[in-house]
Amino acid sequence: MNTSNAILRPPLSALLIYAVGQFGWSLTSFAATNLLVYFYMPPETGNAVFPSLVFQGPVLGLLTLIGLLSAVGRLFDAVIDPIVANWSDRKYSVMGKRRWFMAVSAVPFAVTAYLVFNPPSAAENAGNAVWLAACLLLYYFFFTLYLIPYTALIAELGHDKRDRLRISTLISISWALGFMVGNGAYALQSWWEGMGMSSLEALQRSILLLSGIGLAGMLIPVFFLRENRYALQEQSEHPLWESLRIVFKNRSFRYFLLSDLMYWLALNFIQLGIGYYITLLLDLDKSYAFVFSLVSFLCSFAFYWPVNWMARRFGKKKPVLWAFWVFAVLFGVVATAKWWPIPNQLLLYGLAAGAAFPLAVFGILPNAIIGDVVAAEGTKFSGMFYGVRAFTMKVGISLANLLFPSLLLLGKSTQNPAGVQVAAVLAIVFCMLGWRYFRQFEES
Hints:
The chain is an all-alpha fold. It contains 17 helices and 2 strands. It has a single domain, classed as Growth Hormone, Chain: A, CATH 1.20.1250.20. Helix content is 75%, strand content 1%. The chain has a two-stranded antiparallel ribbon.
């Protein structure tokens, strides 16, 4: 166990090593988070993007098979978040209690991320559904085993509010880089298709390449971060339910979780829907999904310093409230994109630039906010606070994965994009609810 007298404030080099891990898991998780529906329930543009691999019709009248499998996987992921958090808080290892989990999970996390997109048959059958369900459960287990201990280090490496804001900024940049590189899967798919590959093989090869790069990033902090030298840590002896009771006792944190749930619902309606918004509402090639992500995240970097300044000047609450409003306006533009008298490419670039501010805010401030809460409560619960936040995040992602494919049943074709438009409208509702809940949050 570390004590405050035995550790050093981490230098920038150590924080950069730590941030590379965020790039790694962001890139490795990109496909399963953002391409699953696109791969197993592709948009109907006149030509088959992929062969039908699982049942495409409605299940129980309203749901879809891919939506159910994805939601179940995410719910499993969410349920084990606090369990892994408690394991990590109570763990002792000579290499560091967080790095131990990161070391044992990185390789199987990357492998299962690839296997999710490699069903045993290239034709629709029940075996593919069973394979996908099993791979998703394994993928989410190893994802959580890496992510929860990794994020707990934000509060432990950040010795004061300024440090925590600095760390949150660095990992926001590295997450955005991972997300941008992940969106390159669309462009890589088109490139390999141009070389004669089928769409199926082209996307699978893209995911294999990106998962390998992500694995390398995840292993950097495992090998090179000196956790025992820099992390402020206390050993927890609290059982799971006692730790959860302490975390949920914090009223402001409960409101943060409610607003965060709405944010993740809205964000995943962007991530799940980007291929549909691009091809069906803007009538552009799917490769423009990468262009959108590249432009939005590059522009968001220009807001990183202003967001840091605003957080120091006004506190962290006001920028988050403003960001919810900006996201809501952007979703309104997306929902009505077919009726705007603006060239589609210009509208795409405008939306990408407009997303820069909220992406910067939500990329930086939530992790710093949780770090401040942890500092007030004690670092022995660091893993649990971030684990509960991850639970909320994954519930939001699960609901998005359940809802979004069902909305597509209303229409996901060029002639009838009603389902895609309704999804954008529903995202506006999520943003407004998130704004309302976060108004009740009190900064520590």
